[in-house]
Amino acid sequence: MDVARIGFIGVGGVAGGHLNYLSKFEDAELVAMCDINAEQLAKRAEDFGVEDTYADYRDMLEKADLDAVYVCVPPFAHGSIEEDVVATGTPIFVEKPVHLDMEPAIKKYETIRDSGVINAVGYCVRYLDTIVPLKERLADHKVEMALGYYMGGAPGGWWQQRDRSGGQLVEQTTHIVDTALYVVGDVAAVGGGFATRTPINDTATIDNMSIAHLYFENGAIGTITSSCALSQGFKTGLDIFARDLVVEFTYGGMEIRTPDDTYNQQTGNDMFPAEGRAFIDAVKSGDRSSILCDYGQGLKTLEVTLLAFDAFQQRTVLETSFQPGE
């Protein structure tokens, strides 16, 4: 395959980033788009020179000649999209979070796994060029604690409705949770605290402050804090602590300190096209080793974020249970 022919289901905000870098890849071609918002669909199609557009993704899957499909719908809108895509044998990229409910998401995972199609989930932080050096450095140390942050303001629209976004931890801070799972290790149990001191507005139904307590399988502990109530930006990143090692990691770079020296590395790549490059390479070659987060791994991250709110409601700590199969 010289050029991968790409179709999009959902062309809203998050799709824009993918469309921008794919349009610059010489070995990828944007050939079809689908969205229920006709005005938005027409604008994207014009911007990216796509003539083949659809209101129903099933029509696109039936009529368009596709090598891969990007699923960029809001968390509440997945329906049977993934099952319908993989039924055609087409590789699939799913934006995070993969769902708002574990039971249907597990069924999707099983369908994707059993189909054997190449699949990826949009946890783009894994593709920063600082991540591999960080993982390598941590491999020589016993991590004791991780503290994560996603502190700032609130996007609008469906994002502010819990039944549509899942809340900030599920939809946004999920990137920090996923980074912690990737560099520290899997989580065995989860606790949580959620509150609203100053409502975002009169119609929002999400909490605007949250704390997720993570109990890692390797014995480390962690806390991931979120706020979407601030009128100014603050911190997005992950701090990691070992006896003789302190890491401050952000999207822009990281600082690693020991008693003897300090190491700084600025981020040298754009995580979005790096993520896309890995997926397109896998689609073209059939070798999925470049994909750093598949659907099963994305589902593990979803479970941790969902359990935090459940644990808060039950005033307890809940054990994780989802394990991707081979």
Question: Helical amount among residues, as a percent range?
Answer: 25-40%
* Number of helical regions: 11
Shape: globular
Task: List SSEs in N-to-C order.
Answer: EHEHEHEHEHEHEHHHEEEEEEEHHE
| β-strand number | 15
Query: Spans with pLDDT under 50 lasting ≥5 residues?
Result: none
CATH topology (level 3) name of the largest domain: Dihydrodipicolinate Reductase, domain 2
How would you classify the helix and strand content by structural class? alpha/beta
Task: Kindly describe this structure.
This protein is of the alpha/beta class. It has two domains: 4-124 and 272-294, Rossmann fold; 126-268 and 303-319, Dihydrodipicolinate Reductase, domain 2 (2-Layer Sandwich), CATH 3.30.360.10. Helix content is 34%, strand content 26%. It is built from eleven helices and 15 strands. It has a nine-stranded mixed beta sheet with strand order 14-13-12-11-7-10-9-8-15. Strands 3-2-1-4-5-6 form a six-stranded parallel beta sheet, with helices on both faces. Helix 1 (13-22) links the parallel strand 1 (4-9) and strand 2. Helix 4 runs parallel beside helix 5 (102-115), helix 5 runs antiparallel to helix 11 and helix 9 crosses helix 11 (295-314). It is globular, with a radius of gyration of 20 Å. The model has no long low-confidence stretch (mean pLDDT 97).
